[in-house]
Amino acid sequence: MAQKFDVCIRGDGMVGRTLALLLARQRLRVGLVSHDASKGNHTTSDDAQDVRAYSLNSASRDLLSELRCWPSPQHATPVQHMRVWGDNGGFTHFESPTPDGLTWIVDVPVLENQLAEAVRYQAEITCLTDDDSQTTQADLTVICEGRQSVTRTTLGVDFEVMPYQQHAVAARVRCTTPHRQQALQWFSQGPEGLEILALLPMGGAQGDTASLVWSQPPARAQAMLALDANAFAQALENASHGVLGQLTLTSERAMWPLQLARAQQWTGQFADGSAWALAGDAAHNIHPLAGLGLNLGLADVAELAQILKTRDGKDYWRKAGDRYFLRRYERARKAGLLPTWAACDGLQRLFAHPNTSVQAVRNWGMNGFNSLAPVKAWAMQQAMGLENR
User: Fold this and answer.
1) Three-state SS for 120?
2) Which of 15, 134, 142, 278 is the most buried (most CB within 10 A)?
3) Which pLDDT belongs to residue 369?
C-alpha cells in the first residue's frame, strides 16, 4: 500500500533535514528519503572522513538555533576577524562589530548528527529508503539531492554548468599559533594559474585547529593530494606565510571539482500532476571562496517553509504542491541568489585573469575597498545575512 505524505523530501543531507524539521513544525506529514546522492560529492568513499566546514551567517544560525540544532561553541567557532590578501600587495580586513562574530565556522559532521538526532524524535517525519520512495505519494516533492541530483536529471531539468579550471582540496590541520578567531584567505598566481587558500578557525574561541579549502588548478591539486602528510603541511605553511605557525595535518584530504551552476527551472509537475521543487545544491552551485554555499541552501528551505506556512491562514485550502506557492518560492529564491552568485563568480574570474594590468587594478581595488568604511560595513551586512533585517 502506498504511503501518503504532504511533502516528500529526496535527500537527507543538511538542507533536506532542515526542511523536514521546519515542515514538521507545521504539522505537515513529511517523508524524508535517504540515498547516496544526498550525501554530497566531496569524499571518495563511504568510509572517508568528512573534513568539510562551513561558514554560516546570522540568518543560518538563527534558523538552526530555532530548531535546537545549533552546535556547541566548540563546534561553531565565531569569526572575529577576516583577513584577505591579494596576489600582488592587495589586502582587506573585516572586524566583527559585535562579540558574536562575523560568521561561524561550523563542523559539518557535528551539525549533520544534530539534525539527524532531531529528525529521529520528530513524529511527523518518516525516514524512507530509495526503495520505499517508489511507493510513496505526496502533493509536493522537494529535491535536495546535491549537485549530482539523479531526480533532477531524470526530470530533464536544464542545469547550466560552467566548470572552473580548479579543484578544491580540503583537510584539517593543527597550528602551533592559535587562530585567535581569524579566518584567513590568500589569492595567489601559481605556475599553473589561480590558487585560493582559506584557513578557517575551528575548535572554539581558544582553538588551535583550522579547516582548509585550497582551490587550485586540477593538475596542481592532484599533485598536492599525492604528497605525504609532512610535505603537504610544509607546502601549506609556505602558502600561508607561516601566519599560523607550524602546521600538522590531522585528517585525510578530500578533493572535488569546482563549478558555477544553476537550474533554469526550479519547480514543475510530475506526470501524475503532483509538484516538485529544487533546493540547495540541486538548484545552484557557487565557488567556495566566500564559504556561502550552505547559507544559500538553508535560505532556500527557509523561504519555502515560510511560504507554505501561509496555509495556516488565508491559504488553508491550498495543497502544499499548489503552483501559487511554487511560483512565489522560485521567484523569491532566484532573485535572492543572483547577487551572491554573480559576486562570487566575478571575484573568481577577476583574480583568475592573467593580465598584469588587471592584476594591478584588482589589488589596488582591494586596498581602496579596505579604506572605505561605509562600503565595508555594507559588505559585512551582506555576508552576515543581515541585509533583510
Assistant:
1) helix
2) 142
3) 47
Confidence of residue 81 (pLDDT cuts 50, 70, 90): very high
Please give the grid coordinates belonging to residue 142: 522537494
How many residues belong to the chain? 389
Q: Which CATH architecture has domain 3-383?
A: 3-Layer(bba) Sandwich (3.50)
Residue type, position 138, single letter: A
DSSP strand pairing (136-143 vs 159-175):
unpaired
C-alpha cell at 383: 555576508
Cell numbers given for 239: 602558502
Span 128-147, pLDDT tens digits: 998 887 788 999 999 999 99
Phi, psi torsion values for 321, nearest 5 degrees: -95, 15
User: Which three cell numbers, joined as nine digits, stand for 103?
Assistant: 560568521
CA distances, 94 to each of 58, 152, 215, 239, 345 (Å): 16, 39, 22, 21, 21
Helix-helix angle 293-308:323-352, to 10 degrees: 170
- Give the tens place of pLDDT for each residue, 3-39: 899 999 999 999 999 999 999 999 999 999 996 544 4
Rounded to 5 degrees, φ, ψ at 278 are -100, 150
- For the chain, what are the domain ranges? 3-383
* Cell numbers given for 310: 501561509
379 by Cβ neighbours in 10 Å (0-12 / 13-18 / 19+) ranks as middle
- Residue 100, classed as helix, strand or coil, is coil
